Amino acid sequence: MATLRSQWLGQRLRDLRDAAGITLADAAEYLGVKNTSTMSRYETGIIPLRWTDVDALLTMYGVADQGLRSELISLAKEAWRKGWWDEYRDVVGDKRYLDAFWLEGRARHIRTFNLGFIHGLLETPGYMGAIFRNDSSFDEAAAARAVELRLARQRILDTGQASMTAIISELVLRQRIGSPAIMREQLTHLLTLSERDSITIRVLDFDATVYHALAGAFTLFDLGEPFTPVAYVENLAGCLYVESPAVERYLGAYDEIEKAALTPSESARVIRQACEVWK
């Protein structure tokens, strides 16, 4: 299965080739590729390109922008490189989830809306454990591995590598996961995280009327130039990555949710009130 990294790279190279008016056959000949079908697999991401070939193609396509060249060559290197998360394939299931971890590591800003659970990047070990132990597909060892993976993902926030805006439905604060003690610890953790300059936590309270919010949770990854934002949606059947132009619908929905959400200070007050309920 092609990774999101190799798909992105192939798509951007195809766009640059088209813009330069160069045929697939000419590009294949330039690289010394035997046939156009192999070149087509490069452009669909089925086969990842080596960074040296990407460098050569960019020259052929007349790409002089050093920033763009650097980004695409870096993407080519990443397509061949195993991520730290690969060792957790045993508890991930669908390999497409791994691309979400790569996006987390590459994002400059992460925006989330959650309707059922706290987002994984903001969860405590106790909260995570309660979720995974309730999943019949995990035994005790697998649940522990899943918690370990989720904690490892949180390093991007601990290092300040990415900033985050999390909007949480008030329902999530009142929905019991595990024990009252686990809920109290989790909500206290949210209050602690909200004190960081790089993390903004807001609550969409029960009185807010935003119909897009009822469609469910989603995440937006802002990657910076030359990449457009990517939306990520997860459900019981798997996960979905939404890119431009369809991502505009998610960007618009998030704007609506954000406008209706309580301010950070009001949100902290609601979280503290919910925390009292779990004593």
TrEMBL record:
GO MF, one annotated term: DNA binding
Membrane-spanning segments: none
CDD domains, alphabetized: HTH_XRE
HTH cro/C1-type domain ranges (all copies): 13-45
Entries under Gene3D superfamilies matching the protein: lambda repressor-like DNA-binding domains (1.10.260.40)
Signal peptide interval: none
PROSITE patterns linked: HTH_CROC1 (PS50943)
InterPro entries: Cro/C1-type_HTH (IPR001387), DUF5753 (IPR043917), Lambda_DNA-bd_dom_sf (IPR010982)
Protein's recorded name: Helix-turn-helix domain-containing protein
Organism for this UniProt entry: Nocardia uniformis
